[in-house]
């Protein structure tokens, strides 16, 4: 039908030429171009333990956004000012593979900000007690290198990274290590492995602010580009906040923040349910 | 300091005093601000909060690299230099926070295809560093004459283990606190522009801190107004 075809052509042209107006027309009807409501997340899928060479791994897909996290455990001497603690070292990599906006070379600002964000979440939420990573105080401790690599960038990278990190850490199995008294060397027993003690489950919920007033959940890449501000809330299961990350952008009132909090609480339940299901389906190992 | 040979009066700023340190009704430390102290940048300011001191310089609107130019707005850039060592990932993260806060208030559309650079140097760090950086950046932008639709200020709150709120904490209080929250608020409606938090806290504690920060921001904005009035009334 020619009129349907003409309308299709008009819509695609309009979307390219006036993306903000195009979005406004949908937001007025309380929905978004991909059919989601303003408070709806994209389909979330998680795949745990896919990388056999890593001590723990997880792949998270939030719509098109794909992040994979691999955790490798190595030995290191504990820090001198905290001889009974180990290390958790996160690193977020946004390679040119995931989006045309990133070039190869040293990490850009986006990757550095994301790495700092993940480091803050680990630190604030106390997801792992660093004392659990100590093998022999003052001599030997575990260091967990958590590498998060984005394979496809379509917005909301922080939520995907936090979820991938949590799932990967839940999948990590560390072998038992004993220090031989005579040789003072570490003996690793690869046959006896134990899971990490994950104390809290921080879940991130991101919002984008449109035209200084409207808040939408889980923005895609295009929505992030058009937004006037973003907000990320990281909450654990008791409703405690680990991080309220609002890097500038339009102002928000206290009431709007409250709405975001309640959405974050529901999102936490959804994510926890999904992760428990996946872990349960994997347990016989 | 070198002798200034400029003929026009280099307005060596007025040291504005904030409210009395830790007095009743206002628990912010003593603050002071000096403007126009550097000769090269278009605008500069030094902001002191207790013993924390940050020096800010603003260059702009100036020429922008073609790769960074935006066709309808000014490109804002923030460079934060720590007191010791090379800037690392934490500085990059803070630069992003400060830059986005400035972008929300600066009227960039009045100067398209230009760049506005804010350079911040940490002179001394005795707690509430991010808030001090924000305040210094705002004062420097005002000194440079960059058009803004509102002023902004930074306020830090610390929550200790039994839930008491301390505004504008010192380094010692920050270390011992359970949570440290830094907010940037705008001057028109006291809306939350930026928030960066450390530690665990509950939703109600967040609202409490936000309300306390909004009340404290009144004092900061009054201080801005007084120090600017004093500066311009002399000339």
Automatic annotation (TrEMBL), chain A:
<feature type="domain" description="Exoribonuclease phosphorolytic">
    <location>
        <begin position="40"/>
        <end position="175"/>
    </location>
</feature>
<dbReference type="GO" id="GO:0034475">
    <property type="term" value="P:U4 snRNA 3'-end processing"/>
</dbReference>
<dbReference type="InterPro" id="IPR027408">
    <property type="entry name" value="PNPase/RNase_PH_dom_sf"/>
</dbReference>
<dbReference type="GO" id="GO:0034473">
    <property type="term" value="P:U1 snRNA 3'-end processing"/>
</dbReference>
<dbReference type="GO" id="GO:0005730">
    <property type="term" value="C:nucleolus"/>
</dbReference>
<dbReference type="GO" id="GO:0071028">
    <property type="term" value="P:nuclear mRNA surveillance"/>
</dbReference>
<dbReference type="GO" id="GO:0071038">
    <property type="term" value="P:TRAMP-dependent tRNA surveillance pathway"/>
</dbReference>
<dbReference type="GO" id="GO:0071035">
    <property type="term" value="P:nuclear polyadenylation-dependent rRNA catabolic process"/>
</dbReference>
<keyword id="KW-0963">Cytoplasm</keyword>
<dbReference type="GO" id="GO:0000176">
    <property type="term" value="C:nuclear exosome (RNase complex)"/>
</dbReference>
<dbReference type="GO" id="GO:0035925">
    <property type="term" value="F:mRNA 3'-UTR AU-rich region binding"/>
</dbReference>
<dbReference type="InterPro" id="IPR001247">
    <property type="entry name" value="ExoRNase_PH_dom1"/>
</dbReference>
<dbReference type="Pfam" id="PF03725">
    <property type="entry name" value="RNase_PH_C"/>
</dbReference>
<dbReference type="Pfam" id="PF01138">
    <property type="entry name" value="RNase_PH"/>
</dbReference>
<dbReference type="InterPro" id="IPR050590">
    <property type="entry name" value="Exosome_comp_Rrp42_subfam"/>
</dbReference>
<keyword id="KW-0698">rRNA processing</keyword>
<feature type="domain" description="Exoribonuclease phosphorolytic">
    <location>
        <begin position="202"/>
        <end position="265"/>
    </location>
</feature>
<protein>
    <recommendedName>
        <fullName>Exosome complex component RRP43</fullName>
    </recommendedName>
</protein>
<keyword id="KW-0271">Exosome</keyword>
<dbReference type="GO" id="GO:0000177">
    <property type="term" value="C:cytoplasmic exosome (RNase complex)"/>
</dbReference>
<keyword id="KW-0539">Nucleus</keyword>
<dbReference type="InterPro" id="IPR033196">
    <property type="entry name" value="Rrp43"/>
</dbReference>
Automatic annotation (TrEMBL), chain B:
<dbReference type="InterPro" id="IPR015847">
    <property type="entry name" value="ExoRNase_PH_dom2"/>
</dbReference>
<dbReference type="InterPro" id="IPR001247">
    <property type="entry name" value="ExoRNase_PH_dom1"/>
</dbReference>
<dbReference type="Pfam" id="PF03725">
    <property type="entry name" value="RNase_PH_C"/>
</dbReference>
<comment type="subunit">
    <text>Homodimer. Component of the RNA exosome core complex (Exo-9), composed of EXOSC1, EXOSC2, EXOSC3, EXOSC4, EXOSC5, EXOSC6, EXOSC7, EXOSC8 and EXOSC9; within the complex interacts with EXOSC3, EXOSC8, and EXOSC9. The catalytically inactive RNA exosome core complex (Exo-9) associates with the catalytic subunit EXOSC10/RRP6. Exo-9 may associate with DIS3 to form the nucleolar exosome complex, or DIS3L to form the cytoplasmic exosome complex.</text>
</comment>
<dbReference type="GO" id="GO:0003677">
    <property type="term" value="F:DNA binding"/>
</dbReference>
<dbReference type="GO" id="GO:0006364">
    <property type="term" value="P:rRNA processing"/>
</dbReference>
<dbReference type="GO" id="GO:0005730">
    <property type="term" value="C:nucleolus"/>
</dbReference>
<dbReference type="GO" id="GO:0005654">
    <property type="term" value="C:nucleoplasm"/>
</dbReference>
<protein>
    <recommendedName>
        <fullName>Exosome complex component RRP46</fullName>
    </recommendedName>
</protein>
<keyword id="KW-0271">Exosome</keyword>
<dbReference type="GO" id="GO:0016075">
    <property type="term" value="P:rRNA catabolic process"/>
</dbReference>
<keyword id="KW-0539">Nucleus</keyword>
<feature type="domain" description="Exoribonuclease phosphorolytic">
    <location>
        <begin position="28"/>
        <end position="147"/>
    </location>
</feature>
<dbReference type="GO" id="GO:0003723">
    <property type="term" value="F:RNA binding"/>
</dbReference>
<feature type="domain" description="Exoribonuclease phosphorolytic">
    <location>
        <begin position="151"/>
        <end position="215"/>
    </location>
</feature>
<dbReference type="InterPro" id="IPR050080">
    <property type="entry name" value="RNase_PH"/>
</dbReference>
<dbReference type="InterPro" id="IPR020568">
    <property type="entry name" value="Ribosomal_Su5_D2-typ_SF"/>
</dbReference>
<dbReference type="InterPro" id="IPR027408">
    <property type="entry name" value="PNPase/RNase_PH_dom_sf"/>
</dbReference>
<dbReference type="GO" id="GO:0034475">
    <property type="term" value="P:U4 snRNA 3'-end processing"/>
</dbReference>
<keyword id="KW-0597">Phosphoprotein</keyword>
<dbReference type="GO" id="GO:0000177">
    <property type="term" value="C:cytoplasmic exosome (RNase complex)"/>
</dbReference>
<dbReference type="GO" id="GO:0051607">
    <property type="term" value="P:defense response to virus"/>
</dbReference>
